[in-house]
Amino acid sequence: xxxxxxxxxxxxxxxxxxxxxxxxxxxxxxxxxxxxxxxxxxxxxxxxxxxxxxxxxxxxxxxxxxxxxxxxxxxxxxxxxxxxxxxxxxxxxxxxxxxxxxxxxxxxxxxxxxxxxxxxxxxxxxxxxxxxxxxxxxxxxxxxxxxxxxxxxxxxxxxxxxxxxxxxxxxxxxxxxxxxxxxxxxxxxxxxxxxxxxxxxxxxxxxxxxxxxxxxxxxxxxxxxxxxxxxxxxxxxxxxxxxxxxxxxxxxxxxxxxxxxxxxxxxxxxxxxxxxxxxxxxxxxxxxxxxxxxxxxxxxxxxxxxxxxxxxxxxxxxxxxxxxxxxxxxxxxxxxxxxxxxxxxxxxxxxxxxxxxxxxxxxxxxxxxxxxxxxxxxxxxxxxxxxxxxxxxxxxxxxxxxxxxxxxxxxxxxxxxxxxxxxxxxxxxxxxxxxxxxxxxxxxxxxxxxxxxxxxxxxxxxxxxxxxxxxxxxxxxxxxxxxxxxxxxxxxxxxxxxxxxxxxxxxxxxxxxxxxxxxxxxxxxxxxxxxxxxxxxx
Length: 538
Prior knowledge:
Helix content: 40-55%
Low-confidence stretches: 477-538
Radius of gyration: 23 Å
Mean pLDDT: 84
Number of helices: 19
Largest sheet: 7 strands, parallel
Shape: globular
């Protein structure tokens, strides 16, 4: 039988690409043949990260769509979008790459599986055409998935009047959330249709109909939520992380040794001075107002704690605030305006705290290098991540807002207070102890014989066994997901109803969470849940 051959297809964003490249390291170590799909502008980063030649034939470029309304020509990564509001248009435009992807797939031999980002939902249709199992990679934890399923299937947002009222999560009664922990339109009583909702629902449907879900987490971190998700007739969750602990290839290690940026020299200086540093970063896509930037600057300055602040936004207002701060601080603080190797920062011995937006990659990196978090979520699922960090696994504290709400304005004195508490206070000591304990668990999970190490081996073996079995019988490799009792409409593909999953809406006495919808047209003009009797075969 042929050896395993995996296709890896990351979404065009560094935060989504890097974990899948870490996964690629693990697969290479297991002697799995890889073919990686990307776009022309993203190829150099991927090649450098993997230590491959830029023209390596195992990296296949697809032409990224041009002339997307509102998006400047040449932008092929969300990191460079002028505004996060353009994300739905960017993500939807990736569908135009589907014919090119399928043409390239046709020329590949013996593909065992496709691991594609959950945002690339259309790759499921491509995988099914070629009879290849598709695994969805979602860059979030299982806590978010489990809480979300309870919230939407039980319609928990239909009750409270205020967006800041605490709501008890039905299946996990110790967890309290608010509507403001979710983005619009998901936090509305009846979500309004539009590009954002359409995109999320299409991703949800495709993931639910994939062979499995690859999770960048480890079982010991959230066993209750992994077990909850795997108890349902949904794709199995395979926890193979934290992927940031995957050892890079020698060329990448060598590049890190020879590259010694100014911020690293500054951290070395602080270490020699025996000064603890708080690292501040809010991701590459958060929109922070000038007024809030000024309060952050003042709070960090008044805390008298040394800090390294990475600022990704480059505009006149931001630059004015940063320049003023630099002039006042001298050597006590450093501001970086470029992409940084965050892992190298968190690994540095001088870094003792992280003011973070709580993107899941950042949370995992904090865990792995045992740096406690001051949680300041900005967007997407980050507010739920922050609840997990502070309330569930207790490895961080949370910033104080003026009005106590989860999306409120943060004044300088509130930030100063919590930075000092994280770095020097009793609560800071407690979360530091906890993150050290969980960090050790993360290393054990990824080490040979650990839970994530075993899970990845089991996934590879299962996929290879499926392929061998299908090949011997001359059958298609794709596994059709259709739970018992579901009736399948003629000429339609059985898909999980994203509307019900997201809204909890049910229509008809025999409404099922599974529904037949035409691939590629499901989102056009849908204003109600189609899980009704006239959508199933009699």
